[in-house]
Design brief:
- Helix content is 70%, strand content 0%.
- It contains three helices and no strands.
- It has one domain.
Length: 80
């Protein structure tokens, strides 16, 4: 996947912290730090989004739907 160059504005104290991590060789560069940070944030957001969608499900309704499906399958398949 290609990379895109962006410009961002952040607090100078925060940037100093990033630069310290780069100097201490925790990260290769500012870019690698920010790419890593954004990737982690996107992953957390997507997991949270899934959890929020799952919270919308009605467990009893889903169970009933599943049981109805199983009963219908049992009627279709012959006994052995």
């Amino acid at each position: 996947m290609g990379k895109a160059k962006v410009a961002v504005t952040i607090d100078s104290a925060l940037l100093e912290s990033v630069d310290r991590y780069v100097r201490e060789h925790e990260f290769e560069s500012r870019s690698s730090f920010f790419e890593n940070a954004v990737a982690e944030r996107v992953e957390r957001y997507e997991k949270g989004r899934l959890a929020r969608e799952l919270d919308k499900l009605d467990v009893d309704e889903e169970r009933q739907t599943a049981e109805e499906g199983i009963e219908a399958e049992n009627e279709i398949w012959p006994e052995y």
